[in-house]
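Course assignment 3, question 2. Fill in each field.
Student: A.L.
Task: Predict the tertiary structure for the chain below.
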Amino acid sequence: MNFMEKLQQAMPANVKPAFGSFAELQAFHHDEAVRFGRECSDRQQQGRITQAMGRSGIKKNYAQCSLDNFRTDFMGYDASARQGQQKNVQAARQWLALYRRGQAGGFVMLGTPGTGKNHLASALGNAILAQGGSVLIATVSELMIRIKDTYRNDSQLTEAKIIKWLSHVDLLVLDEVGIQNRSVNENVLINEVINQRSMRNKPTGVLSNLDQNGLVEVLGARAVDRILEGNSMWLSFNWPSFRQMKRRAG
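Answer field:
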C-alpha cells in the first residue's frame, strides 16, 4: 500500500485527499519552496533598498508635522499671506481625502525657502504613513547618489531595482527640484521614474524654489503634465520665510 492509499484509508470516507499521487504532493511542496524562496529574496532586496533610501526621507524636524499644526495665524504676515496659507492647507486636506479614495493625482509646491512647502508635504507623508502607506521624500541629488551607488562592483542593488522601488512607493516627493546637475542622464532617470509612477497611478509630488516656467524648463513639459494628471494640486507659497519673519518679530 503506497502513501496516498494509506492516507486515504486513514481519512474519513467523505474526505478526499487534495493530491492524487505522492508525486503531485512532492511537486506542490517544490513549487511552494520556490515561491517562498522568491518572496524571501524580494523581501531581502526590499530591505536593502529601504536601508539605502531611508525609511521615508522625512527629516526628524518634520516628523511631527501635520495639517493641524501648520500655522496660518502668525501675525507677522499680512492678511493676504495668511489667507494664502489657509487656502493651501485646505487644498492639502482635499488632496489627502482624494488620496484615501484612490483618486489623487500628483502635486506641485513652489515657493522660496522657509515658506512651508516641506511642512505641508511632510504632513501629507505622515498622514499616509499613519494609515500604513509607503512614502519617500528625497532631493533629486539624493536619489542620484543612491542610483550611482548601484554602479559599484560590490553593490547588491541595480539601477533598475531602485527605479522599480521608486515607481511603487505610495507617495514619492521630489524635493529641491532645480538644485541639481541637470545632466542628460539625470533627466532621463527622473523622467523614467515619473513615467513609471504615472502608469501605476502613483502620485508624485514636487517641491521647488523655481517658478512655473523654471520648473517646466528643468523637468520638461511632458513630465510636469504626467505629475498633474487627474485630481492634482498646484500650490504657490508667495510669502516671506517664516523663520525670517519670526526672527524679525523677536
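Instructor remarks: The chain is about 55% helix and 10% strand. Residues 39-54 have pLDDT under 50 and may be disordered.
Grade: pending
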